[in-house]
Automatic annotation (TrEMBL):
This is tRNA (Adenosine(37)-N6)-threonylcarbamoyltransferase complex dimerization subunit type 1 TsaB. The lineage of its organism: Bacteria, Pseudomonadati, Thermodesulfobacteriota, Desulfovibrionia, Desulfovibrionales. SUPFAM superfamilies: Actin-like ATPase domain. Residues 45-140 form the Gcp-like domain. It comes from Pseudodesulfovibrio sediminis. Residues 230-262 are annotated as: Disordered. Residues 245-262 have a biased composition (Basic and acidic residues).
Amino acid sequence: MSAVSCHKPDRLVLALCGSEERLQIVLGEPGPNGYSVLAARQWHAPRQSLKVLVPGIKAALDGFGVTTDALAKIACVRGPGSFTGLRVVLAAAQGIAAGHDLPLAGVDYLPLLASGPASLVTGPLHVLTYARRGLVYSQSFEAPTLVETAPLMSFTLKDAAARMAELGNTATLMGSGLRKNPDFFAELAAANTGYTLLDAQWDTPSPDTLLAAGIQAVASADSMDPVYVRPTDAEDNLPQIAKKRGLDPEAAKKRLDKLRNQ
């Protein structure tokens, strides 16, 4: 966390990210040249975000002698990513926002990651983050402008490679999908010498990058829905879950479809 200053800041922006294994909290304060990072905390907290998020926000604010009353806006990454992490972050953000009548702003995760190295590379930039075993979220951009060239989708590794090939044989690849599938992407890069694989430092947005995205994101009084992209594991395994509970799998599917359409 940043060193505690002697002043008590006001009109802070709180930016949150829990899409992957690192949970991030950033506080930004206004200044003559726009917002800057006042404090930043992060934890490597897979499956523990519920335990550390709200106490972490409180501790960050306590360090400056302020409460959530000092907030002017909350921005949070809405996905895709860990279903549990996204739900915890959005629930906390919406709870604080409701209690203080604050606007919420949603940040899309893969464009956020792409904005980190975008000014340092040129040409196709493919962001690939871990979705589950053998599956990645993929979105492509043209660097440094960050114009989207292929929309956000979930793919098998083979299909992700095929879509990247359609966009040219020279590109920069980044994201946790590379880290979780090292052999596949090492072989892919060896077979495609025009591919450059960025290292793990770009797998997590920096506090400045997260804050900047939160400031730029349009805020509103509406509640925010997570961006999941792929079905949950429970949805994929619905027939097996239904059978274990003595339910008819087809009836369970119809019930789920009905609830989705409500």
